[in-house]
Amino acid sequence: MYRIRSECEKLRYRSESQNSKYITQQTIDTVVFGQVETDVFLLMTTWLKDPARAVLLLEKIHQEDREWNLFAGSLYWSLKLYIYMIDLYDLGVRDSKEIASTLSMNPRQISNQYKQI
Fold first, then answer.
1. DSSP for the chain, written as a single string
2. pLDDT tens digits for 37-51?
3. CA distance 95 to 117
4. What CA–CA distance (Å, rounded) separates 114 from 26?
């Protein structure tokens, strides 16, 4: 639900910025992230446990001709999330619900990623 809300907000902002009353399929394809997010979390999890395997996974993603910009955007978002989570941990914030609230994220997603870090 969080992801759906987030994607809808991006579409709304894009529509408003272009003074458009309609959202086209092209706008959706441009703005909404695809399933590369799953690949990013798999890559991040693998990177933390087995960096050599992570490189192979990255090569596979690239060879499958995925939308590289979407993947790079998701990777950037994931790295930023990890850095925020580490900073909060260093500040003494260790409860995944509190971290999720601070980052405006889904608590379950934070809990899963927090365990990896």
1. -HHHHHHHHHHHHHHHHTT-S---HHHHHHHS--THHHHHHHHHHHHHH-HHHHHHHHHHHHHTT--HHHHHHHHHHHHHHHHHHHHHHHTT---HHHHHHHHT--HHHHHHHHHH-
2. 456 777 777 777 888
3. 14
4. 35
Amino acid identity, position 115: K
| pLDDT digit string (tens) for the chain, length 117 residues | 677 788 888 888 888 888 988 888 777 767 775 544 456 777 777 777 888 888 887 777 777 665 666 677 777 877 888 888 889 889 998 888 888 888 887 787 777 777 767
Whether 44 contacts 115, CB under 8 Å: no
Q: pTM above 0.85?
A: no
